[in-house]
Amino acid sequence: MVHFYRFPLEIREMVYYECVVVGEIYPYSISDARQPDAETAREKTGCDLPAMALMQVSKTIRREAEPMLYQQNVIRLGSATATKKFFERCLTTPERRMWLKSIRLSLNCQDITRTDRAAILDTQLSLERDSLLFPENTPYRWFEAKLHAEYRKRLTEVIWPRKVSPIIEDCKLEKLAIDFSASTCQAGCCRLRAPASIAFRKGFAQGMPKEIQAIGLTEEKTELLRKLIKKWTSWRVARCDMLNALDVFPEESER
What we know:
Number of strands: 5
Mean pLDDT: 81
Structural class: alpha/beta
Shape: elongated
Helix content: 40-55%
Radius of gyration: 22 Å
Order of helices and strands: HEHHHEHHEHHEHEHH
Strand order of the largest sheet: 1-2-3-4-5
């Protein structure tokens, strides 16, 4: 029998390709996969899973096959929590993150984590304490508006920039698909596509992706967004250029 390692690298790569390249992969935790309702990978994630057992055969196979797993599949990033775990557990160094070539992610209110909710709860308690200083007839909707504003602020200034940070800092992508169709506040009453786009305001440190797709936007707005991200990438601006973002989404300027 011929030893597998005696085959030329090109032949071994053909084997790896058949095992780990499935089109799209959606990272999730093993505990989630063991839930009773997760009978198959496609039912759980909408994607077929690569043959990850191949990575456990030997260090040599893992070293040769792992880059292909990330380079030739589209990585569909879910919530902010799942995205954080993916980068912390799978791609722990900037060098490994350079393997990524195609990413699809969404920016929506589901990115709010338990830690973020706890921080917002502290604000709510603070508002309740401050309410003792107001007259008894202060309308309750005033407190609701304050809490709603805190959720919006947390999403646009902390959560979404934190989610995309490893992508714009360490990845050199060929394609990036951003889903803005559900970029709203936690109540679903405010469209936050302009603040969501500002999550990319620092620009891409390793160069702008060759292709940017904006799901939920018209082709005209998508092209304007590409130009805006290209400018941010060129300037690597440190401050939020809100006016430029509102040029792309003028209907949100009145909010």
